[in-house]
Amino acid sequence: MSFSVEINIERAFETPAATDKVFDLLADVPRSASHFPKVDRLIDLGSNTFCWEMEKIGIGSYTLQQTIYACCYSVEAASRKIAWSSVAGVGNAKVEGEWVLRQKEAGTAIVLKTKGEVMVDFPSFLQIIISPLVVMEFTSLIDHYLANLQKSFTAS
């Protein structure tokens, strides 16, 4: 029997990049997603909705888990906010969140809030062992993603 793992992440950071540059990159979902590690495929479902298929996790030729989910994105240029909500019935995870940007005198303040729920296809008695590993992996992916974005924000 499977179990779910909840993940909540909030990160705030600043970049010397102009707010328009940051907003343009983050609002372009495929371009932003290209900075996210371990994405196997990003599928455009239309209407600013995308299905994320992450790389399979496995041992040898055996696949243990592949995380798949879909999100619908909304972009508010005036408020510099990009939000995404989970699309029901797609994959084994639900992910939602938002980017909030604030122009500063010397760049942009950025806040990322995201939360997710991943269905893990392992026996429930392993939940106490596997749940922290899933949270740690997702957190690591987010931190790597933010580092990749920061490099792009500051590149000429």
Could you give a quick summary of the protein structure above?
By secondary structure, the chain is an alpha+beta fold. The protein has helices at 19-27, 29-33, 127-154, and strands at residues 3-15, 39-46, 49-54, 57-59, 62-65, 68-76, 81-86, 93-104, 107-120. The chain has a single domain, classed as START domain (Alpha-D-Glucose-1,6-Bisphosphate, Chain A, domain 4), CATH 3.30.530.20.
Write structural notes for this entry.
The chain is α+β, with helices and mostly antiparallel strands. The protein has a single domain (3-154), classed as Alpha-D-Glucose-1,6-Bisphosphate, Chain A, domain 4 (2-Layer Sandwich). The protein is 27% helix and 48% strand. It has three helices and nine strands. It has helices spanning 19-27, 29-33, 127-154; strands at 3-15, 39-46, 49-54, 57-59, 62-65, 68-76, 81-86, 93-104, 107-120. A seven-stranded antiparallel sheet has the order 1-9-8-7-6-3-2. The protein has a two-stranded antiparallel sheet with strand order 4-5. A hairpin with a 6-residue loop joins β7 (81-86) and β8 (93-104). The model has no long low-confidence stretch (mean pLDDT 94).
